[in-house]
Amino acid sequence: MYRPILKIPKTKSEKVWDCIGGGLFVLAIFYIVVMWSKLPDKIPGHFNGIGEVDRWGSKMELIILPIIGGFLWLVMTLLEKAPHMHNYPTRLNEQNVEAFYRNSRKILNEVKNLCLILFAFLSFQMVRIGLGDADSLGWWFLPMVLLGAFIPTIKGFITSSKIK
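^ that's the sequence the OP posted. Answer follows.
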């Protein structure tokens, strides 16, 4: 199958997504560090489907989200740099390869940055709940996570189906 390795510069939207996702993620880590000494020994460790705390755990668990987020960022950034390794329809050819690569990379970029935003929000809320400034994530959290995962993917598949 035709799979050339191309150097395609990031689009403006990809750069904006990277700034927003990465920036919020770094801010959330900074917030954790700043608030660490104020946190009680027990903070939210898990939430149910409507955003209520259903398990409390050690504040050391707060470190898990930045580690997972950093790992996801690394892996997804590496995959963004290798669109020739992504999955494509058999109609991929010399004329449309750049469009397919760019679309696939944009989907991955949006999902990566939405994950970082999600982890930033979760970290922020876990600290706020631990401090008593909030009591849940909110009922809207799970629907927003699902929309954040499916909208870029569906949008990307629709765009892909239009590539000739």
